[in-house]
UniProtKB/TrEMBL annotation:
Class in the EC hierarchy, top level: transferase
UniProt domain Glycosyl transferase family: residue ranges: 830-983
Pathway: Glycan biosynthesis; starch biosynthesis
GO molecular function: alpha-1,4-glucan glucosyltransferase (ADP-glucose donor) activity; alpha-1,4-glucan glucosyltransferase (UDP-glucose donor) activity
Organism: Corchorus capsularis (Jute)
Protein name, per record: starch synthase
Segments of this protein annotated with the region Disordered: 53-99
Family: Belongs to the glycosyltransferase 1 family. Bacterial/plant glycogen synthase subfamily.
Catalysed reactions, as listed in the record: [(1->4)-alpha-D-glucosyl](n) + ADP-alpha-D-glucose = [(1->4)-alpha-D-glucosyl](n+1) + ADP + H(+)
Domain of life: Eukaryota
Record field: compositional bias (Basic residues): 60-70
Annotated HAMAP family: Glycogen_synth
Taxonomic lineage of the native organism: Eukaryota, Viridiplantae, Streptophyta, Embryophyta, Tracheophyta
Length: 1037
């Protein structure tokens, strides 16, 4: 693999990098690693072309679109310049404090190191003098008036250079860490070798002692032999009488002597062999000791190299900081570049056209100049002719021919003068034409500049993020709440924000360094009548993803809000300020210097208002100062006084809109927690002046209706006797209770739910949970709109939670994520083609927990694998699945994770081949959409939103392009079996069909764009009806 490095390094840049790593024995050190850092002058740019070759890369790093993680540099890696042929001595520049190139030698290699080499291929020395830092700085600079052209050197090049410098610093840090580790390893080996040396020295001393003992024994034997010879001589000199005895004695002594000599000879021979072996071993030990001493000296050299490496790392860090400061300085003008590029492009096109005209006029002028030069030549000829004429006049009297010649010359002179006069006229006309062309060019250029200036001052600004405009909007609303500006001025300023007005952008940028009073004055000078480009929508909800998310409600509030914002509408969110929110996901969170008083339980309570942006949307957080600490409970729902908590919040939210002087077109409330907004708005706040809005209510699940004793409704200020009636808020199943969801259906202008099929189901006695009659009575304003998903957050091509990103056109990454998750969860990886079924859900009866349990065992029977992620708020269900999890704790094919894990959920979507959703009822469901987005084919029951988004591959009533999964109708084990078996059969026996099905699912558009368009149409129709009714009423009066 080869990768191109940056074409140039700034300031003290590297001439080259070279990493060598050779395999050798553990204790062998070769002089082949050389680190040399050559630094250029501080104002030079050095172009270079580098290649990096790495071996032994894993397959996932070679895949297109996946950048391999940085490899650890072995201790034998070095950094060095090019060879002498590639880099002349003149290009090497000394450090500021020395005249010698800084060189660091670091040599160590191991058997398992990976060879890594970064070679500088060539250096273009001819460009050393042509590129300088001031030139780059000048190229990056932009004229404040917008009249200068952009340089060819782009900001991306500078960023790439800085990233390369950062990469080099990282490589040096890694080399330093690895060298330290190797140093510790060498020191430990040094200690062990020192111990072995001590043992060998002891053995050597023992061998010397044994040699000495053997030598003494040999001397003793030689003495005994001398004594024996003397005794033999004495026996020979004795008489014959004792001759026989002597011979007998001599024979005996001879036998004993021979025995002793044989014994001594064998002992001496063995000792000699042992001494020889000890000497050989001693010589080898001395050689080893000498080698160890040389290795210890190399270790000392390594310590010195580490010190020099540390100095180089510090120097590189300082260079990196200098580059970062330059980048920060250059980024100040980045915001201008995007707008100037478009303007300069158009302006440059017009300038090119004008340049053509200029070139044409210049050619004409050149032609006129050439004609003028010809006329000057003619003048010279005329002068010569006049001289000749004067000479001819001297001979006029003497010759008639001369006179005739003179007359002829006079005629020629007249002709020349006429031609000269015509030529002067032509030159003058050409000059006038050229002057007019220059004037026309200058006028056109000035008009273009003026047009560009007007367009820049009056046109909308599209290059600023939504967070920027939300921040300005929150500042304006804060001033309005704090009574620093009037409600009318706040309205006008909001309209300018809606239009992305450049003036308010410039005013905000100019006020960054001013105090608040000066900023308010600056903004007030901008107020003028403006037309709103879209609707003003306020969502009042109990959840918002990702800061306060329990279920799908939070995803809908954020997803729908962002989609409407992209369509040009002003969207704001009002939430309770929970103590358990994810505050790190809120940007620019601050408290306003104002309190909002709201009525509850016969008293006025103060509420602190906080503002911030979430996912680019402006959000208001209400913090009640109530002794019961309504939203400081450590959880969102599930408290004994939830009815009071959220009725208090609903009234406080409307009070905030009233006191802030807001005039929204739509107030959109969600589920029973904010269903109180509808009756509160019409009964209490519309008469107070908050009467511009139409109310839209969305019920995400009719299972939860929040009914309570009728007397509890009085706490928020609503009249119980007025509302506890069958046609208003009285619960349809208990006359002494009130139903907030029913009240919202009755008092709202638009009522929606989260899928068309679910809208039909809840109008039946079985699905309506007691509200079917109310919904049928108000059916004209009731509609189901299928939810969408955030396709930016759920995108396998950019998902940072995945090991490998992938797309519909490149499914190899999905297989790699499947293998990685199997290893992570401890599942068997013996069969790559074994199907994996995923399930991510809350374990509640609605989700079909008994069918999920059956699917686990049935998947195992059919030879598949199953992964479940989720938990249950119902204790006996949680205990049941904990037992199943313990049963399969160490199983090769089943794994249950009974909690919610955000990162693991992304992993399961990407790794699973199939995704099961066997819900008893499902208002909408998002998991099937997310699963298809990640290429996991859904197996779902035909109910609610599942019926509107999953269509069976064999359903002939559905067009082929919409068939995307496997469905079953009856909520029983037979239905699950049929769908699972059908899916397994196609997966195992028709790989090509399955691949096409996965690609089809991944290409389906489940974004919020289509759903937001339907809500936009509902909003617009409701607002139009209200305005028409108001106009009719005004004409009648």
């Amino acid at each position: 693999m080869s990768a191109k490095l940056s074409n140039c390094f700034l300031s003290h840049g590297f001439i080259g990098l070279n990493y060598n790593n050779n395999k050798s024995n553990v204790y062998s050190y070769n002089r082949n690693g050389n680190l040399r850092l050559l630094f250029l002058p501080s104002r030079r740019l050095l172009p270079a072309s580098c290649k990096m070759r790495q071996r032994n890369l894993s397959s996932q790093h070679k895949r297109q679109g996946k950048k391999p993680p940085p490899k650890r540099i072995p201790t034998s890696a070095g950094l060095q310049t090019n060879s002498d042929e590639e880099s002349e001595p003149e290009t090497s520049v000394p450090f500021p404090n020395g005249d010698v190139e800084h060189m660091v030698n670091h040599e160590t290699s191991y058997k398992d190191d990976v060879d890594t080499r970064v070679d500088v291929e060539h250096i273009d020395e001819q460009n050393l003098d042509s590129l300088t830092l001031p030139a780059v700085t000048k190229a990056l600079a932009l004229s404040r008036d917008g009249g200068e052209q952009l340089s060819g050197v782009q900001l991306e090049d500078l960023i790439a250079m800085i990233k390369n410098a950062e990469r080099n610093v990282l490589l040096l840090n890694q080399a330093r860490v690895h060298a330290l580790e190797d140093l510790h390893k060498i020191l430990s080996e040094k200690e062990s070798l020192q111990g072995e040396m001590n043992v060998l020295e002891m053995r050597l001393a023992e061998a010397d002692a044994r040699i000495k003992v053997a030598s003494q024994e040999k001397i003793h034997v030689e003495l005994l032999e001398d004594q024996l010879e003397k005794l033999q001589n004495e026996l020979i000199q004795r008489g014959d009488s004792v001759k026989n005895e002597t011979e007998l004695y001599k024979n005996q002594n001879k036998i004993s002597k021979e025995d002793a000599l044989l014994a001594h000879d064998s002992r001496v021979h063995s000792l000699s062999k042992e001494v020889d072996s000890l000497r050989t071993e001693n010589l080898a030990l001395r050689n080893d000791i000498q080698a160890l001493k040389s290795m210890l000296s190399n270790v000392k050299n390594t310590d010195e190299r580490m010190v020099s490496l540390e100095n180089e790392r510090s120097f590189l860090e300082s260079s990196l900081k200098e580059l970062e400061s330059k980048l920060a300085a250059s980024q100040q003008d980045v915001s201008k570049i995007s707008t100037l590029k478009v303007e300069y492009k158009d302006l440059w096109t017009k300038v090119e056209n004008l340049q053509l005209l200029m070139d044409k006029a210049t050619k004409q002028a050149d032609h006129a100049i050439s004609v003028l030069q010809q006329n000057q030549d003619l003048r010279k000829k005329v002068d010569k002719l006049e001289e000749s004429l004067e000479e001819a006049n001297a001979f006029k009297l003497s010759s008639e021919k001369m006179q005739q010649y003179n007359e002829l010359m006079q005629q020629k002179i007249k002709l020349l003068e006429e031609r000269l006069q015509k030529s002067d006229q032509e030159i003058h006309s050409y000059v006038l034409l050229y002057q007019e062309s220059v004037k026309e060019f200058q006028d056109t250029l000035n008009s273009l500049k003026e047009e560009s200036r007007k367009r820049a001052s009056n046109g909308p600004v599209d290059d600023m993020p939504y967070e920027f405009w939300s921040r300005i909007l929150l500042i304006i609303d804060g001033w309005a709440l704090e009574k620093k500006i009037s409600s009318n001025d706040a309205k006008l300023l909001r309209e300018m924000v809606w239009k992305r007005d450049r003036q308010i952008r410039d005013a905000y940028m100019a006020c960054k360094e001013k105090n608040e009073r000066e900023a308010v004055s600056t903004f007030l000078r901008l107020t003028s009548s403006q037309a709103s480009p879209g609707l003003y929508v306020v969502h009042i909800a109990a959840e918002m993803a990702p800061v306060a998310k329990v279920g799908g409600l939070g995803d809908v509030v954020t997803g729908l809000g962002k989609a409407l914002q992209k369509k040009g509408h002003l969207v704001e969110i009002v939430l309770p300020k929970y103590d358990c929110m994810q505050y790190d996901r809120i940007r620019d969170l601050r408290a306003l210097d104002v309190t909002v008083e709201s009525y509850f339980d016969g008293k006025l309570f103060q509420n602190k208002v906080w503002v911030g942006t979430v996912e680019g949307l402006p959000v208001y957080f209400i913090e009640p100062h109530h002794p019961n600490k309504f939203f400081w409970r450590g959880q969102y729902y599930g408290e004994h006084d939830d009815f009071k908590r959220f009725s208090f919040f609903s009234r406080a939210a409307l009070e905030l809109l009233l006191q802030a002087g807001k005039k929204p077109d739509i107030i959109h409330c969600h589920d029973w927690q904010t269903a109180f907004v509808a009756p509160l708005y019409w009964d209490l706040y519309a008469p107070k002046g908050l009467n511009s809005a139409r109310i839209c209510f969305t019920c995400h699940n009719f299972e939860y209706q929040g009914s309570a004793p009728a007397s509890d409704l009085a706490s928020c200020g609503l009249e119980v006797q007025h509302l506890n009636r069958p046609d208003r808020m009285q619960d349809n199943t208990a006359h002494d209770r009130i139903n907030p969801v029913k009240g919202a259906i009755v008092f709202s202008n638009v009522v929606t739910t989260v899928s068309p099929t679910y809208a039909q189901e809840v109008r039946t006695a079985e699905g309506g949970r007691g509200l079917h009659s109310t919904l049928n009575f108000h059916s004209k304003k009731f509609i189901g709109i299928l939810n969408g998903i955030d396709t930016d957050a759920w995108n396998p091509a950019t998902d940072s939670f995945l090991k490998v990103q992938y797309s519909a056109n490149d499914l190899q990454g999905k297989a790699e994520n499947k293998a990685s998750m199997r290893r992570h969860l401890g599942l068997s990886s013996s069969d790559d083609q074994q199907p994996l079924v995923g399930c991510i859900t809350r374990l509640v009866p609605q989700k079909g927990v008994h069918l999920i349990r059956h699917a686990i065992y049935r998947t195992l029977e059919m030879g598949g694998q199953f992964v479940l992620l989720g938990s249950s708020p119902v204790p006996h269900i949680q205990r049941e699945f904990e037992g199943i999890a313990n049963q399969f704790q160490n199983h090769d094919h089943i794994r249950l994770i009974l909690k919610y894990d955000e990162s693991l959920s992304h992993y399961i979507y990407a790794a699973s081949d199939m995704f099961i959703i066997p819900s008893i009822f499902e208002p909408c469901g998002l998991t099937q959409m997310i699963a298809m987005r990640y290429g996991s084919v859904p197996i779902a029951r035909k109910t609610g939103g599942l019926n509107d988004s999953v269509f069976d591959v064999d359903d002939d009533t559905i067009p082929h392009q919409f068939r995307n999964g496997f469905t079953f109708t009856t909520p029983d084990e037979q239905g699950v079996n049929s769908a699972l078996e059908h899916a397994f059969n196609l997966y195992n026996n028709d790989k090509e069909f399955w691949r096409q099905l996965v690609q089809k699912d991944m290409n389906i558009d489940f974004s919020w764009d289509s759903s937001a368009s339907q809500y936009e149409e509902l909003y617009a129709k409701s607002v139009a009806r209200a305005r028409a009714a108001a106009a009719t009423a005004s004409r009648g009066t």
